[in-house]
Amino acid sequence: MLTFHYTARDTSSDKVVRSTVQAESEKAAARLLMSQGIIPLEITEETRRANIVKKFVNRVTVKDRIIFTRQLATLINAGLPLAQSLRTLATQSQSKQLALIVNDIITTVEGGGTLASAFAKHKRVFNEVYISLIAAGEVSGTLDKALERVADQQEKDAELIGKIRGAMVYPAIVLVVILGVVGFMLFTVIPQIERLYHDLKQQLPFVTAGLIAMANFILNFWWLIIIVLVAAIYFSRRYLQTDNGQRVADTLKIRMPVFGRLFLKLYMARFVRTGQTLLATGVPMLEMLRISSRSINNVIVAGAIDKAAERVKGGKALSIALKTDDGIILPLVPQMIGVGEQSGSIDKMMGKAATYYENELDTAVKTISTAIEPVLMVFLAIVAGIMVAAILLPVYGLVNNVPGL
């Protein structure tokens, strides 16, 4: 899909509007605009380079999207018309990119399109779960409640990811400091010891000689190291973009020691929270499973949910369909859904399961963060010991070889 900037006249209000639209070609963009009652005056394609820069500089953050959704729900609940609510948010938005998107949504809505179809034109910002919840809210006449559920679901998801990323900050800082200290010692202190030993025609200790060989290799072949690293990153990313590569990476995520269980809890929390939100808004069961599997961001877990959907289509209860022997769907999920099927409140039981896994994740992240600290201290002590040995062993060796000392 290409992005086009356009200037057009809205036939319903006879106003000139400027915004962006995504389409396969310029002609397709013109047809799309005309179908919405907008007469294009000028359409220009956004260059690839500008699009890349715009993607990183003017991207819509999760926080921007949550605030926008929450405010839109408040305005609609207060009784303001949809177009007026959107126009108010467009003028108040601190994100220029989000303001452009909202203006394009206003154009679509005023042209007779549904709010869900207007959001669907910007799938890079609003995912399938978001759009489906909006569509269900429009059909049921509970758009404000649907928007509140969307905001709640996004906040929960962002909170989970934030906790996991936050736990990785301290180890990352320590590792950067360790690499900085090692680099300083390798390229400044140890070479001076080498020159001293060379002048005295003495043989270096094994540890020092090994570090000097490493430093010399990096200094002489830094360009080769960069080429190898860039090539490795490039081909790894290309491989991970293939179906097989994605399956391998996602399998490693859920099978790796310690962190595999953490990832599974994250995926279960995401699945049941999304499912609860969709069912509460009135989305049918099979559609809920299809959308939820796309929101997991793991093809192995998504495949297990898709298989469960096929069993449900064949007449089985969801709690039975979700039971697997490979341990991908954690046992609590079908158990809680089974209770919900008996009581007629599957969405509420999925919500309780989501809360349980979110609390479990919080505890697991704190435990891992606490355990990482002593491990890093031991690693730091080993590195420091090697560096001290590489410096002090040559000094002691010189002292012992000097006559009269």
Short synopsis of the structure:
With 405 residues, the chain is mostly helical. The chain contains 17 helices and three strands.
Task: Describe this structure as you would to a colleague.
There is one protein chain. The protein is mostly helical and 405 residues long. The chain contains 17 helices and three strands. The protein has two domains: 2-126, no CATH class; 143-405, Type II secretion system (T2SS), domain F (Receptor-associated Protein), CATH 1.20.81.30. The chain has helices at 26-35, 48-57, 62-77, 82-92, 96-110, 115-120, 128-140, 143-200, 206-220, 222-240, 243-255, 259-281, 285-295, 299-313, 318-321, 332-343, 346-401; strands at residues 2-10, 15-23, 38-45. The longest helix has 58 residues, at 143-200. The N and C termini lie far apart (78 Å). The model has no long low-confidence stretch (mean pLDDT 83).
Keywords:
405 residues; mainly alpha; 2 domains; 17 helices; extended
- Please indicate the count of domains: 2
The counted number of beta strands is 3
The CATH topology annotation of the largest domain reads as: Receptor-associated Protein
Uncertain runs are: none
Oligomer: single chain
Query: What portion of residues belong to β-strands?
Result: 5-15%
CATH class of the largest domain: Mainly Alpha
Question: Which value, in Å, is the CA radius of gyration?
Answer: 29 Å
Looking at CATH, the homologous superfamily of the largest domain is Type II secretion system (T2SS), domain F
Major β-sheet annotation: 3 strands, antiparallel
What share of residues is helical?
Answer: over 70%
**Order of strands, widest sheet:** 2-1-3
What CATH architecture label of the largest domain applies? Answer: Up-down Bundle
Number of helices: 17
Distance between the termini: 78 Å
